[in-house]
Design goal:
371 residues, alpha+beta, Naphthalene 1,2-dioxygenase Alpha Subunit, Chain A, domain 1, 7-stranded antiparallel beta sheet
Length: 371
């Protein structure tokens, strides 16, 4: 089990850290500021390559209120475009499916799978109609072991600069990562600011008290640590003792089959690998200053352990997820109280399970972005 080499001195936490003030989680103006300062400047999860099998396959998604779509072009390249016609701004596509061309349902303006304008009704009689200048605005795409990420900022650094080592480490923990497909997915609504939910995920100080199934039947909390590497929080520990595991670990799941690890990629996606190389994702999708949808996707190779993974996903939904919903909703209510005063984060000199150094790192990133 590998982990980045980080100590308290490198984190500059000898003087401690104070939690963010409540307005970071409750102020609608600051939430709107985060749109430009965070979400339109960072790598955002869109979907998985298994959703795009043939040229013309597409799916739509949103980043805040920006509607987008990914499509596989005729050269098998994944492209992402703003989901808006360049004619009169109607949305082009809905849901997911397969198309030969991208046709606007308003006036039938037609674009190729590469985003270039192809034709419009009555264009031959149009005055000063420069069809060569019309093209759908394209968005940067990176494939991360088949997971599709997009960035609305053309000048942003590539993902490997943001999250050093994460790509190689993830492949080491999941040897079959290039063969994955989505097995099952849930969408859970939480009545809290997205940062409350991410912070709850980003420490295990609360795990033993609040997550008995996870802390005893999936991981061994004694070895738990969370360490920053770039704009990534890397969680590592061993799996639970074999006789306590709540599911069967596959014997052919690689050299990390007895380990647990997670890679939270700032700001809204985390890869989580359970013992046995079972990969799942957390995807935070803010819907308001005090609401967020958390998507949980579970992935496996074709025809591999499907029943077991669906059972594990259900266990997770009924235990860890349900437990976390109660926690984060309570925190959001508390942040609105006039009686709340931000207290010190608990920073253990030795880091480890019962330390909130990861929260200090996350909150530093927030302040870097929005001040």
């Amino acid at each position: 089990m590998s982990a980045p080499s980080v100590d308290i001195d490198s984190l500059n936490l000898r003087q401690g850290a104070i939690a963010l003030e409540a307005h970071y989680y409750t102020d609608p103006v600051l939430y709107e500021l985060e749109g430009d300062a965070i979400f339109r400047k960072t790598w955002q999860y869109a979907g998985h390559i298994s959703q795009l099998q043939m040229p013309g396959d597409y799916f739509t998604f949103e980043i805040l209120e920006e509607r987008l779509f990914c499509v596989l072009d005729r050269e098998d390249r994944v492209r992402c475009f703003y989901n808006v016609c360049q004619h009169r701004a109607h949305h082009l596509l809905e849901g997911a499916g397969r198309v030969r061309n991208i046709v606007c349902p308003y006036h039938a303006w037609t674009y190729g799978l590469d985003g270039r304008f192809k034709r419009a009704p009555n264009e031959k009689n149009a005055v000063a109609f420069d069809k060569g200048s019309i093209c759908l605005p394209e968005i940067r795409v990176e494939l991360f072991h088949g997971f599709i990420f997009v960035n609305l900022d053309d000048d942003a650094a590539p993902m490997d600069d943001w999250y050093p080592g994460a790509r190689e480490e993830l492949a080491d923990y999941v040897p079959h990562i290039e063969d994955l497909r989505l097995i099952t997915e849930t969408q859970v609504e939480e009545d809290c600011n997205w940062k409350v939910s991410v912070e709850n995920y980003s420490e295990c100080y609360h795990c033993s008290l609040n997550h008995p199934t996870f802390a005893n039947g999936v991981i061994d909390p004694k070895h738990y640590n969370v360490l920053p590497q770039g704009y990534c929080l890397r969680h590592t520990t061993k799996g639970a003792q074999s006789d306590a595991m709540t599911y069967t670990v596959a014997n052919d799941s690689g050299r990390h089959k007895a380990d647990y690890s997670s890679w939270y990629l700032w700001p809204t996606l985390s890869f989580q690998v359970y013992p046995g190389a079972v990969l799942n994702t957390y995807h935070w999708q803010p819907t308001g200053v005090d609401t967020v949808t958390v998507g949980r996707g579970w992935f496996a190779p074709e025809n591999a352990y499907t029943d077991e993974i669906e059972a594990l996903a259900q266990q997770d939904l009924e235990t860890t997820v349900a437990e976390d919903v109660r926690l984060v909703n309570s925190v959001q209510r508390g942040l609105k109280s006039k009686g709340y005063r931000p207290g010190p984060l608990l920073i253990d000199e030795n880091l480890g399970l019962n330390s909130e150094h990861s929260i200090a790192a996350f909150q530093r990133w927030v302040k870097e972005a929005v001040g």
